[in-house]
Amino acid sequence: MLSPQRSLIIALICLAQSSWCLQQKINYREKEKQVLDQILGPSSYDARIRPSGINGTGHHKEWV
Predict the structure, then answer these.
(1) b/e string for 5-40 if b means 16 or more Cβ within 10 A?
(2) Which stretches of the chain score pLDDT less than 70?
(3) What residue spans of 1-64 are helical by DSSP H?
(4) What pLDDT score was predicted for residue 5?
(5) What is the pLDDT of residue 13?
(6) What is the pLDDT of residue 29?
């Protein structure tokens, strides 16, 4: 038979494990966005700005 202390410890472990499973998963991209928004602030960062995607590192344009 289990002692009362062991029964209590097992019950607490089961409760702790079930509470860990109920926690929401962390969305790291959302958390990163929140940190950047806090650091940079709305006055110095505009989320709409994106690089143009034009690669200007080539030698020259070829006309075919």
Answers:
(1) eeeeeeeeeeeeeeeeeeeeeeeeeeeeeeeeeeee
(2) 1-2, 18-24, 42-62
(3) 4-22, 28-44
(4) 82
(5) 83
(6) 86
Sequence letter at residue 42: P
Spatial neighbors of 12 by CB under 8 A, at least 6 apart, are none
Would residue 50 count as lying in a domain? no
Pair of tokens at residue 34: 């929140």
pTM for the model stands at 0.32
Q: Is residue 16 domain-resident? A: yes
Quick check: is 54 in a domain?
no
In a domain, 24, yes or no: yes
Q: Which structural domain, as residue segments, surrounds residue 23? A: 4-42
Domain count along the chain: 1
Q: Are 2 and 10 in contact (CB under 8 A)?
A: yes
